[in-house]
Amino acid sequence: MSRMTLSLNQRAAILSVVILLVGLLVWEAAIPAQKAAENLTEYERLMGLGSERAGVPPPSDVIAKAWEQLSNPFYDAGPNDKGIGIQIGYSIYRVLTGYVMAALIAIPLGFLIGMSPIAYRALNPYIQVLRPISPLAWMPLALFIIQDSEASAIFVIFICSIWPMLLNTAFGVAGVREDWVNVARTHELGHFRTAFTVILPAAAPTIITGMRISIGIAWLVIVAAEMLVGGTGIGYYVWNEWNNLDLTSVIFSILMIGVVGMMLDAAFGWLQRAVAYAE
Amino acid sequence: MSKPFLSIERMTQQFPDGQGGTLTVFEHASFGIEKGEFVCILGHSGCGKSTIMNILAGLAEPTSGVVKMDGYEVSGPSLDRGVVFQNYSLLPWLSALRNVTFGVKARYPDWPRAKVEAHAREYLAMVGLEGDVVHRKPSQLSGGMRQRVSIARAFANHPKLLLLDEPFGALDALTRGTIQEELLKIWGGTEQTVFMITHDIDEAILLADRILLMTNGPQARVAESVEINIPRPRERTTIVEDANYYAIRNHTVQFLGRRSKELAGRPAEGLDQSPATVRFENGHAVAAPARAEPESPRRLRAVNE
């Protein structure tokens, strides 16, 4: 090569592809090939080694599976056989429902807590006790009270995504610079105008950071919640394929969980950049 | 004698001193400002200048005493009293133009969008900000440009009283000079009443009709009111040739260097603490009749008599 003219990004992309190819090759090579039945000795046949064993599938199988699933993601062939798109759709629907309900409560409440030191001190002990509870610990109580597994899964999402939004909103609102509030005061802005034209934009980056953390946690939790409540969703799909001993589908759905989580995070990352400001 | 446009009457500010007692920043301070007047207040750090400014802006409450503007007692912040803060206090998520329209919209909520924007652009142009630069965010502007935006925002709102809290304190000397001239120009066209805190004697002489001199705190008071009778329009290069320029400057330097300390810390003993008027003619101090405070004639002691 005569001269190094590639940019840093280009070189990083090439390295990424190399790592992927090496990884896939190592994986492929590490899977022992199963002997064909006619090559077995009598003893081996007697020991049952002739029957097909479940093993970690090689990447070529996973890629073939992905191609098959993604070329028809929305098929519906009964309760135990739905396309990956439908399953992910159910999961996203649950996450967004619980998440939006949490935001509708957490952001106004966070505003109140951030603006009022009394409210902050009064509510802080409850927040500190409730926040570290694993969201799945709520599941039995939710199932008993709500009497509906679908709604219980949504409740679990609600309860796990409320805390980062609540705390970040309160923190962001409390930290708005006194000078900017004084600008609002000297311009005779009312409480609502001050909240929407000064405090909200000033605290927006912190609030969106909280929302981004929340959506990440919600996506982590939905998989576990759906494994418990069953029926539909990507979490149920993973568990169902495990029961079917279809490890190819398990690996494929794990990858899909990662891709969707990345896209949700990227959406909030974009939002975060949109409201960011430099002082 | 009629009351001045803005009058501060027997204003006292005390804070708890942290050991169970009280710290008196200033006591029974009384002074007035006429309509259209440009008044600078000079004093060492800790004498309560910023406290006076915050009380006038309505952002703080005095322990006792009243502030009257146009005959009415003022309380709380108001659009009638515009403030230019030392740190500009621009909203960093808004462009320069939006920072100004923010104020104009608050002042004239009935104006249509286009009129608000035209008005804001007009005032930005007055401080030399035109074209694409008005769409920049404060973080993309230099300190001088930010303070220009802040000044435009304040003037565009036509407040009855404009309060400037060390507006040029954070700027380099050259930028400061340019913006001082712009401030003079924009002020000259508006007959705006201005009350300004500064640390810079030359700035005060260039800009003000009157300089209020404060003694050191605690128990500070506005001890003297020095008239700057140098004719306008003023320019940095020509005011030095005025017969009174050096007399005023020396008097002020001596006050801040020596007498602000000597006069410090005297309790008010229930008396109004109104400033003695100091006036210079042909480079000499002359006895001036007290302005709004005829009951307290004081012996003048100008150092360069």
From TrEMBL, chain A:
Where is the ABC transmembrane type-1 domain positioned along the sequence? 88-268
Protein keywords: Cell inner membrane, Cell membrane, Ion transport, Membrane, Transmembrane, Transmembrane helix, Transport
Q: Where are the transmembrane segments?
A: 12-31, 96-120, 153-171, 191-210, 217-239, 251-271
Indicate how the chain sits in the lipid bilayer. Answer: Multi-pass membrane protein
Major localization listed first in the record, in broad terms = membrane
Give the subcellular location: Cell inner membrane; Cell membrane
Origin, by domain of life? Bacteria
Q: Name one GO molecular function term.
A: nitrate transmembrane transporter activity
In the record, the note on similarity to other proteins reads: Belongs to the binding-protein-dependent transport system permease family.
Q: What is this protein called?
A: Nitrate/nitrite transport system permease protein
TrEMBL record, chain B:
Keyword Cell membrane carried by entry: yes
* Keywords associated with the record: ATP-binding, Cell membrane, Membrane, Nucleotide-binding, Transport
Topology of this chain in the membrane: Peripheral membrane protein
Q: Where in the cell is it found?
A: Cell membrane
Q: Write the signal peptide boundaries.
A: none
GO CC term, one of those recorded: plasma membrane
Name the PROSITE patterns on file. ABC_TRANSPORTER_1, ABC_TRANSPORTER_2
Q: Name one GO molecular function term.
A: ATP binding
Which superkingdom, per the lineage?
A: Bacteria
Protein name per UniProt = Nitrate/nitrite transport system ATP-binding protein
Query: Which species is this record about?
Result: Citreimonas salinaria
